[in-house]
Amino acid sequence: MTRVIPLWVTIVASLMTLSILAFSINLVVYPKTFFPDTDFLAKNVRHFTTMWAMRQFSIGALIAYSLVKQSVPTLKIALSLVFLVNIFTIVEGAYINNIFSIVESIIYCCVSAIMIFAIHKKAKVLKL
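That's the DUF4345 domain-containing protein sequence above. Prediction below.
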């Protein structure tokens, strides 16, 4: 059986998925870890962080599903979502002047773009 998704993409996407899922679970269970000065009793603050965590969890679950099923189109969509979310995070990091968020998001953007390109190239070679 020919692997449609390159092995290195599977490994990197699996690690990315684990970090995304860990982040989302930690954001729901211990939101003070990420926002120590935030009052989670204020109106809509807890709702916002939970929705953010669920968005991240959904993207992580989509990547995991596409890796298990070896679905190229689904993985491209999931990695495109990672890319898009991190573009918005770069803008947000610039707005709040958080260099760590900017650098982290640039790395995620580059990694997801390289994986999308590699998947596309491999699928083109296999004529899928």
